[in-house]
Amino acid sequence: xxxxxxxxxxxxxxxxxxxxxxxxxxxxxxxxxxxxxxxxxxxxxxxxxxxxxxxxxxxxxxxxxxxxxxxxxxxxxxxxxxxxxxxxxxxxxxxxxxxxxxxxxxxxxxxxxxxxxxxxxxxxx
Length: 125
What we know:
Elements (H helix, E strand, L loop, with lengths): L1 H9 L6 E3 L9 E7 L3 H9 L3 E10 L2 H15 L5 E2 L2 E14 L8 E11 L6
Parallel strand pairs: 1-2
Antiparallel strand pairs: 2-3, 3-6, 4-5, 5-6
């Protein structure tokens, strides 16, 4: 499944990686979730012109650490011939910077959010 492959790609960034939502006891982590398409649509997207989008959020208590990890994310995935599983990375875009008070069990956090867009094999043909 493509979400398992994306989790593997994000693990080298050095923070725990969770499919949304993260456990409330974790402060510094990476959380991701799929946007737009359902899991059944992903199989179709792999073979067609469709794109698959994931939102990736880097939660951290220190802004410089969150920013540095975000830069690593872009360097890791936003390059020519990069793939997640067998799907090429179309682009990685910065979606925003947010300040969060998530729950009573979590500390104040900052997050850098990105959208990772993967493309089907026939996209653009």
